[in-house]
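This entry is retained here.
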Amino acid sequence: MEEINGYKDQKEKKVQIQYCRMDASMIAKLKEIRRKTGISTSEIIREGVRRLLVDIESTGSFSLKI
C-alpha cells in the first residue's frame, strides 16, 4: 500500500484560501473540540476534508452517515 503525506511543508507559502459557511452550532462544536484538544479549527476542517477526499479517491464515491 502506498503512503501519501497530505500535509504541506511548515514554511510553504499559502497561495489560496477557501472560505466556508457554517451555522452557529457547527462553530460552537469546533470551538469545543479546539478547547479540549488544542487543535486549531482550521486544522480540524482540513483533516475532515482530507479524509473525505481520500474516501472519494479510493471508492469513487462517498457517503454521509447521520
The first helix runs from residue 24 to 37. The two ends are 30 Å apart (CA to CA). The chain has a mean pLDDT of 84. Residues 24-59 form one domain.
